[in-house]
Amino acid sequence: MKTLFKFYASRWALLFSLIAMIACTLGFNELQMRLGGDIIDSLFIGYDADTVQERFLIYGEVGRATYARAALTLDVIYPLAYSTFFSCLLVLGAVSPRARYLVIVPIAAALLDLGENISIYVLLTNFPDITDAQILRASTLTMAKWAAVGLMMFLAFGQLFMRLILLAVEHLRR
Q1: Dist. CA 75–CA 1, nearest whole Å
Q2: Does the model's pTM come out above 0.85?
């Protein structure tokens, strides 16, 4: 863990992961423009068979193939980038040595996201022959990912806020 904390304490890791997040965000915007609609993994509340059917028909065959490629390329880089970025924020903003262990949340969010990507890839490549169980698995992973991402952001910004308060109090005592 010490090596991992050292990596996350690097300002270079923070900077490069931020750049990668921005590049991926631009890539997702381009992808959604090509698809003619939002990607399904952006649906916070999940999705059902009707939603999948509707979206996949809007994407068309070429769009589904494009989305499938992106699920295994662009959407693999993105969770690695955001989990690194928020882990860096957690380590750099940690108010105690034990607070650094909160990096488990961004790592868990990235793992959920990667599982979601595989599930969405399966849906895209097997459409229209997909089962309700496959849709439920993908949707559940999407909702779990967003819950983990929300927790990750809350913890990271909470740690930074607490760190700023402690620094302000320390400055006032001088």
Answers
A1: 26
A2: yes
